[in-house]
Amino acid sequence: MTTSTYTVTGMTCSHCVASVSEEVGAIDGVTEVAVDLPTGAVTVTSSRPVDDAQVKAAVEEAGYQLAG
Description:
This protein is α+β, with helices and mostly antiparallel strands. The N and C termini lie far apart (about 25 Å). The chain is globular and about 30 Å long. It has helices spanning about 15-25, 50-60; strands at about 1-10, 30-35, 40-45, 65. The longest helix is centred in the first third of the chain and has 12 residues, at about 15-25.
């Protein structure tokens, strides 16, 4: 198992959390997505390493941006 944490900007409500969780969770190999709304931290657990570009694309598809 691999775990990576990203910071997502622009999330303000539970709908935002659901959108990001759904898009990131659809990435092949992802087994769990945990979102902390107050900090914007998104922790992705996967069965194998996930490409950061895939996570970035999924977050953008949900309508948000990765910080940094």
